[in-house]
Amino acid sequence: MERISKMGKNILCLFDVDGTLTKARRPIDNEIHDFLQEKLKPVSKLGLVSGSDFKKVAEQMGGDNVIHEFDYVFPENGLVQFKHGKEVGRQNIQKHVGEEKLQQFINYVLYYLSTITLPVKRGTFVEFRAGMLNISPVGRSCSQEERDAFEQYDKQHEIRKSMIDNLKKQFPDISFTYSIGGQISFDVFPTGWDKSYCLQYLENEGFDEIYFFGDKTDQGGNDHEIYIDKRVTGKKVSGPYDTIKQLEELIDMK
């Protein structure tokens, strides 16, 4: 297997956040952070791509300084772009879809959620982001214990999958992609605005190789499209420490 070395090619290691560098919605461990900054950064450029907005990415990755610690930061699948510490662009869903269709969709989502009963429901069922809607049947203001419980409940009852199937039938005329990620929610975004969207901003950056690390790489997961994209070498991981293990196998730190 070809390894990355200090004297080697121009490399970018691009990471998902939840389940890849951190546990779901948890801050990055110091050990993971230090490995990336001290061991990986000398041999590779660093990038992040997340479905979450910048505020959430910063909370998990140690603060706003993340845009200086990583060469590229792509919140909201790259609809917002940071390069070398500066915001260089953004796109938004309301301009793309139109307010009328967007409201019809949101109204139906809220109606649908009113028809199902879960062990608990909390608040913030629809979170509006620049490039997507994040929909959580249990509500994003649930506690960590409630979050963990819903994840197990959803595995058994497929609440998110059933809701997505319903939305696809209800809105066949809106070109939306639905992507399950994390423990409690799924993302809805214009087709093509998945995580592979960010790659257009890397095509002319002179990289010989881009490695992408993600945990939700199977069909329907929010890392799938970028994982299979021919512009990257995809690496499926099972958690933050598996990410480090695979990096150690990849990197020549001599």
TrEMBL record:
Q: Which UniProt keywords apply?
A: Cytoplasm, Isomerase, Magnesium, Metal-binding
- One Pfam entry name: PMM
Q: Which residues form the active site?
A: 16, 18
EC class, as a word, reads: isomerase
Q: Which cofactor does it need?
A: Mg(2+)
Catalytic activities: alpha-D-mannose 1-phosphate = D-mannose 6-phosphate
Keyword Signal included in the entry's annotation = no
Binding positions (Mg(2+)): 16, 18, 215, 227, 229
Q: What is this protein called?
A: Phosphomannomutase
